[in-house]
Design a protein that fits this description.
Helix content is 45%, strand content 9%. It has 18 helices and eleven strands. The relative contact order is 0.09. The structure holds glutamic acid.
Length: 485
């Protein structure tokens, strides 16, 4: 076989669902793994379902995850144009070719006529399909009616018996009885191709060798194959992907509002983590590896590793993976991603190196930052019971004496830097034979007003600065005094 050519062929009908993203990713990976070309084609024949801006979402999502197409609407290529609405004059001649060969025919049935016959057949308890009413119209009559300007469609002439089948790499042999297939419309009354027809013509004329897409197209594929046979064209290899499920019963659907790529990005997920997670939803490398960059995926991906059963989307696993990626960010990258959330929390003026040190192993999604650092800008109202900690050997009474020691010493400290504060506090603890924790716990509680904090007493003191630290330490001492300590 020549060069592998795969395509991602989205219809611009909305945002990029993680399922669409996975289709794009696998299609891309298959091409790249096999030294082939990845093509982007926009399937916009159904203008009624067109959502403005959706094409940009497709571009932005693919670019966001690092997928580059070799041919596509914006960059062109040998087989262009790559937008179906720009190819509309190309389809009718193919339909006429099928009419000549008796594999398709003109149909003049009006909507009213069809409705009436459908109602009749339903009354008889039959499942309606087009009754080939116009199949045998004499050629002259067809020509006369077309010339007279009567509206028409062109329908596929599906054999009345026999089977239509194909072999899918994932699903195996799929076949349907032709008697169950409708004579589907290929060209609509407005001259535009139907989605199904354009899809087949484009795959063939763009030289697509491997068709990879969601399994919702499994049922239409036998019908598509009849068209390949009618034209005498070589069929592509079909690789239908198993669905992504929300749980054992339900497919992840567009209604699962949060299953969109852009939503995850705006919720503070890293695109590298999303790609890594989505790649593993329905594919595995055959070993224990779990972390992959896009180039690593290009190397490792194979159809053999694609799962034959549906994958269940686990948001907690995605969040876990995101945390692993965040942990590995450099200080510079972490700060760049975190900055909008620092601004939101009002901590953007604080020392970003210390923030990085305190946060990067703790944050699982960037949007969690304001909640984690909120205490830095406003001291929570806390209870003195927080001064009690068994392991650090403190209680409110001990905390009161620790603060009595620490406050004047800190007030007299000439420099407010990490080493100076550290040496001062730990030096005092050592002098008095105290555990470090006995000194640091009360100071940290007074500085933070909460038990769990990113970073310890000294880091917090650096972040909020001398003045605010001393204010909070005094306030903590005062709180204890009011309680009788
Ligand atoms: N345009 C179809 C969609 O957006 C894809 C069809 C295909 O890949 O063949 O779902």
């Amino acid at each position: 076989m020549g060069t592998v050519r795969t395509r991602f062929a989205p219809s611009p009908t909305g945002f990029m669902h993680l399922g669409n993203l996975r289709s794009a990713l696998y299609t891309y990976l298959y091409a790249k793994h096999n030294g082939g070309r990845f093509i982007l084609r926009i399937e916009d024949t159904d203008q009624a379902r067109y959502v403005p801006g959706a094409v940009d979402v497709i571009y932005n999502t693919l670019r966001g995850i690092g997928i580059r197409w070799d041919e596509g609407p914006d960059i062109g290529g040998e087989y262009g144009p790559y937008v179906q609405s720009e190819r509309k004059d190309l389809y009718l001649p193919y339909a006429k070719q099928l009419v000549e060969a008796g594999k398709a025919y003109y149909c003049f049935c009006t909507k009213d006529e069809l409705d009436e016959r459908r109602a009749e057949s339903e009354k008889k308890g039959e499942v309606w399909k087009y009754d080939k009413h116009c199949l045998n119209l004499p050629k002259e009559e067809v020509e006369r009616r077309i010339a007279a300007g009567e509206p028409y469609v062109i329908r596929q002439n599906v054999p009345e018996s026999g089977e239509a089948s194909f072999d899918d790499i994932i699903y195996g042999h799929i076949s349907v009885d032709c008697s169950e297939l409708d004579d589907m419309i290929l060209i609509k009354a407005d001259g535009m191709p139907t989605y199904n027809f354009a899809n087949v013509i484009d795959d063939h004329t763009m030289g697509i060798t491997h068709v990879m897409r969601g399994n919702e197209y499994l049922a239409s594929t036998p019908k598509y194959n009849l068209l390949y046979e009618a034209f005498g064209w070589e069929k592509p290899v079909y690789i239908h992907m198993t669905p992504i499920m929300r749980d054992a019963q339900h497919k992840l659907s567009k209604r699962d509002g949060d299953a969109y790529y852009e939503d995850y990005i705006s919720k503070g997920y890293l695109s590298e983590a999303i790609v890594n997670y989505v790649a593993l939803l329905g594919w595995n490398p055959g070993d224990e590896r779990e972390f992959f960059t896009l180039p690593e995926l290009e190397k490792a991906f194979s159809v053999e590793g694609m799962s034959k059963s549906p994958a269940i989307f686990d948001p907690a696993k995605l969040t876990w993976m995101n945390q692993q990626y965040i942990k590995n960010l450099s200080e510079e990258d972490f700060t760049r991603y975190a900055m909008p959330y620092y601004k939101q929390a009002g901590v953007d003026g604080m020392n970003t190196s210390i923030l990085f040190k305190c946060l990067h192993e703790r944050v699982d999604v960037f949007t969690a930052i304001p909640g984690i650092v909120g205490f830095l800008t406003s001291l929570p109202d806390y209870d003195i019971s927080l001064f009690t900690n068994k392991k650090s050997k403190t209680d409110p009474g001990i905390a009161a004496s620790v603060l009595d020691l620490a406050i004047p010493a800190l007030e007299n400290l000439p420099a407010w830097d990490e080493t100076a504060v550290h040496d001062l506090l730990l030096g005092m603890a050592q002098e008095r034979g105290m555990k470090n924790g006995t000194m640091l716990w009360p100071v940290r509680i007074a500085l933070a007003g909460q038990e769990v904090t990113p970073g310890g007493a000294i880091e917090i003191a650096m972040l909020i600065g001398r003045e605010e630290s001393l204010r909070r330490l005094h306030a903590g001492r005062e709180k204890l005094r009011e309680a009788g300590y």
